[in-house]
Design brief:
GO terms for molecular function: transmembrane transporter activity. It is a multi-pass membrane protein. It is found in: Cell membrane. One of its GO terms (cellular component) is plasma membrane. The chain is mainly α and 329 residues long. The chain has one domain: ABC transporter involved in vitamin B12 uptake, BtuC, CATH 1.10.3470.10. The chain contains 14 helices and no strands. Helix 4 packs across helix 11, helix 5 runs antiparallel to helix 6 and helix 5 packs antiparallel against helix 11.
Length: 329
């Protein structure tokens, strides 16, 4: 059956994303009229306009789309598995661990793997360690979250040690992976993330019903024939894949994974798992944050990770102080 409310919400989000995307292509230190932007996208218009629109702004717009969607999709899956709003890749340390491994490949620590592969390795190691420290609780309970917070803190400290021990040029090359940035992203990493996001979205759709059943008490889920262990393992693997690839492109912008799923739940029908709405809201938040970072102090640019942190931190504090983190409340 088609949920009309979900379809209407997704269409509205697509229209808003399209409008904000056009604004992102048109606005900046050099403002370009919208008709000129359209002509540049068609391969027409002046060479200067084509350079700014298609070579400078369009790649970072696409990077914002796929990274925001990947972070948000990873967030909604992990929150659903843990039944806790705080259980996002950024909160439990996956972002920081992926960043530390990616930085290690950039600053020349003797590791020859590319940043995407290293980021995936870091994300997988952080998840496995947090899962192991959580013991029998698995992804449930606060022990998993506290373990992840500790892992994230240690990973962040390791990143700072690496940056302080290398020449300034190497540290500058790794800087985007420490704050989150969409400027001059690697085309290869972007293509890899786009493929991974497509595969991950299809896998998430396949896990939608089992993950929804996991919101019921454990005996009920088991009685309905759901293999809870396999579902959680598949969901964790999906979150690791999406987070690692997204960090390899944009660095740690984890608060998108916290905010986008929550906004999607508020706008969706109660009890449904808003995968598509979360992904669209993640892409929208990244696009808006990147545009704000380019305009607020123009011609200076504020990295998108700083903008999302400024916007998301008050919400995180409100969630901790005012609301139950249980996802079903």
């Amino acid at each position: 059956m088609i949920n009309r409310r979900a379809v209407a919400l997704n269409l509205v989000l697509l229209l808003v994303l399209a409008a904000v995307s056009l604004a992102s292509l048109a606005l900046g230190s050099l403002s370009i009229p919208l008709p000129e932007v359209i002509r540049a996208l068609r391969g027409e218009g002046s060479p200067v306009t084509a350079l700014v629109v298609t070579e400078l702004r369009l790649p970072r717009l696409l990077a914002g789309w796929v990274t925001g969607a990947a972070f948000a999709l990873a967030g909604v899956v992990m929150q659903t598995l843990a039944r806790n709003r705080l259980a996002t890749p950024g909160i439990i340390g996956i972002d920081n661990a992926a960043t530390a491994f990616a930085v290690a490949s950039v600053v020349g620590t003797g590791v020859s793997l590319a940043p995407p592969a290293m980021a995936l390795t870091g994300a997988a190691c952080a998840t496995a360690l947090a899962f192991g420290l959580a013991g029998a609780t698995g992804t449930r309970g606060y022990r998993f979250i506290i373990s992840g917070v500790a892992i994230g803190a240690v990973s962040g400290a390791i990143t700072q040690v690496m940056l302080s021990a290398v020449p300034l040029d190497a540290a500058n090359a790794a800087y985007p992976w420490t704050v989150g940035s969409l400027n001059a992203r690697s085309p290869d990493a972007l293509r890899l993330l786009a493929v991974g996001l497509g595969i991950g979205y299809l896998l998430a759709l396949g896990l939608r019903r089992p993950m929804a059943i996991l919101q019921l008490p454990e005996p009920v889920s088991t009685a309905l024939g759901t293999r809870t262990g396999q579902v959680r393992l598949a969901g964790l693997a999906l979150s690791v894949l999406l987070t690692g690839l997204a960090v390899a492109v944009a660095g740690p912008v984890g608060l998108v994974a916290l905010i986008a799923p929550e906004l999607a739940r508020l706008a969706s029908h109660p009890g449904r798992l808003p995968l598509t709405a979360s992904a669209l809201l993640g892409a929208l938040l990244m696009t808006v944050s990147d545009l704000a970072g380019r305009l607020l102090l123009s011609p200076l640019e504020i990295p998108v990770g700083i903008i999302t942190a400024l916007a998301g931190s008050p919400y995180l504090l409100w969630l901790l102080l005012r609301q139950s983190p249980d996802i079903n409340r």
